[in-house]
Structures are given as structure tokens and as C-alpha cells.
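seq as requested:
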Amino acid sequence: MKTKLSFLIVAISVCMSALAVEVPAKLFVRGTALAESSVAMEMKRINEDFPKFYMGEGSISNTYELFTALKTGSYEFATSADGGALIQAATITVDGGESLVPYRIRVNFDEATPVVSVLKVDEVILWAPSKKYVITNLEYVGNSTFYNDYVEYIKADWGDERYRIRVYTEDGEYTTYGYKLRAVSAPDNDSNEDEKLPGYFDLYTTTNIEGWDETIDGEKFYGSEYKLSVKRRTANPLLPFSVKVIFSTSKNYTHELRDYDPTSIRENKMQNVNIYPTIIDNSTTVSVAEGAFSVEFVSITGVSVLKVNSSGNVLNLEGLDMASGMYLVKIVQDNNVLSVKRVIKL
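C-alpha cells:
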């Protein structure tokens, strides 16, 4: 695991005269440091940490959180998208070149002075607790999502079919996720919509150590871990699959498993192919490692709305006036599709 000593913790005073701070109903972050949006982004008020919420005894915490990419610039927090700043602006320097650099942003309102934590996400992994084994790393693909399109279940490596999801931040700490207590285990399939598996794939903090249980204040708690579906662990032959972890601010954190499609384009495997921001207003930048390339924007209905050729390895697109919505951006070089990435046009 990567461990970094340098990290950014910012504690800033609230511009309020009250002795205590009321937790706002909503919280937004905005500013030039946002790499994926030119407008304010709403944060998520998260659950209390393990074991309270896991045991059904907890509630929503006083902490707001957001996973998003940042770039060098400034940011501030407000209770509405265009309202006055609740917490004054701070600046950050991000060394990421053309790549999306994911951060976990938190604002905690437990005390009279809110505490802001802005930490780079070093790794998001699938973790096999039986063997204390890193199954795979997930790449940040924008929109609070981490993804790997090709994962294999190898029992000798995993130990068994159980797994957890871990997020490592640059301060050397990590958060571990499993399912909520009393959820169904060992599903027959991987459908997030299966009525027999309500919320099974949603992410809840669980034991944050190497083993199965954790002692907190003298009491032992047993954590949870997901299990691969019957299909994923018993089929002959065993087939690879994709994993997507989604830290949405509008619904529960969750993850998805899908069949690997060998005929599809493997998303985001080309480390030197980048597009940012992926949530765009009227401009974005596309880059490849070297050489000329072309870009095509395709709507979700399959209609090509824009084709542009670049004579160099960086293409700055300005004045994008297509309709709002989601698009697939196909990046082609020497008649080969290097990557297909998703963007959202505001």
C-alpha cells in the first residue's frame, strides 16, 4: 500500500458569531479547484462510522463528504449553490498534469468551528480479508466513480469468495466498506435491482483492520464482507467481470459487478489518454501520449454530434454548444480506438 506522510487538513473558522454551529441542511463546494465542474457541487451527509450505524444504533453524522477530482485553485463551502460562503476560501496545489486526481473532501460540524479535510485518494481497492490480499486497484474515472473492467476470481489468491472495498488516503489512513448488518449474503446474481437483495451492494463502513473482528472500547464487533455471487465463484469456466464503485451524493454509496465483455472497449486502461473536466460547461481538454488523434462525441442515443481532428497530442475544445446530457467521447489514433470515456454536458 502507498503511505504518504504529507497531507492537507484545513481547519477554518466559520463566518458566524454563534457559539455553536448548526449543521446545515445542505452543503456545496465550489471554486476554481474543482476539476470536474464549473458550478458548485453538492456534498453528501454521510452515516456515522462503524459500529453504530452498522449495528442499527446510529444515525446520520454531522459530516459532509464528496469524492471528486481537484486541480490547483481555490475552493469554498456554502449552504446553496450560489449563496454566500459559509466557510471562507482556501487554496490547494495539485500536481496531476492532465490526469484527474481524486480527492475526498469532508466538512465536520461536531464542534463550534467546522473542520475541513481535503485528502488525495491514493488507492481504492478490492480487498480479500481471508488472505489479506489486494485483489485489484480501481481507477478514478470521474463522477465520483472508481472502476476496473477486468477482475478475475482466483480462489488460491483470494482465499475464498469474500471481499471488502477499501479507500486509502494520502495521510496513510483507510476506510473499509462492507454491507450493512443483517443483509443477505452470498447472492445468486449480481443485480443491484434484485428484490431479494435490497441494498446488498451498498457501502457501509465495517471493521477497519486486517482481520474479521475489531474491539472498540472493550467490546468485540464482527464486520461484514461481500461475497461473490454463485455465478462468479462456481461457473466452469470462471469468467472475468468488471467492478464499479460509486460514491454518489444523491443516493447510497454502492458498487456494481457486471460481466466482462471481450468485444467492448476497455475503459480508461490507457493511462496516457485523458479528458478533463468530464463534467463540462462549454470547454474541455483531450490529450494522448503523443501524435495526432481524433475525437468524436456520441449521444446516449448513438448519434454522432461532433468530430474533431487534432494534429498534436493535446486538443482544447472551446465553445461546445451541444445539448445538455451524457455523451461518450471516442478517442481514435491510427484507426484504433484508444479509449471511450463518458462526459456530462451541463
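The radius of gyration is 21 Å.
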